[in-house]
Amino acid sequence: MKIAKALKQKNKIVAELKMLRERIEEYNSVISGNPRPYDITEIQVQLMTKMQELVSLKTRLAQANTLVYSKIFELSELKGLAKFYKDLEIKDGLSKDHRYDETQNYESELKVKQRDELVSELEARIEIIQDELDEFNALTEI
């Protein structure tokens, strides 16, 4: 199985685990005498089986990804940095600040245009790495 398909399978298993947990939560306690729509003991067995399946799949994915961990980690850090800069408030010039009753004159070393260009550069690098990882995931067997 290719990594791309394994990642889809992982998400499917995660959803199934969530559903099994919800059934245990919802149907563990019922009013005495009422029928129980699901056998909790059976669901617990299914839960443990699915959990082991997920652990096995995640392990195989992790082993396959050792070749591209640096790209995965770089991608994560670049996304965080891009978000940081996108959210960075830049005040430059006269502006009324909610902390002061009067207008303040702000100086910003990083200007809006510079920030926007930096974000564009980061996003371009993110796209390149994501494309490389997508190709790796589509071609690599686990």
From TrEMBL:
<feature type="coiled-coil region">
    <location>
        <begin position="112"/>
        <end position="139"/>
    </location>
</feature>
<protein>
    <submittedName>
        <fullName>Uncharacterized protein</fullName>
    </submittedName>
</protein>
<feature type="coiled-coil region">
    <location>
        <begin position="3"/>
        <end position="30"/>
    </location>
</feature>
<keyword id="KW-0175">Coiled coil</keyword>
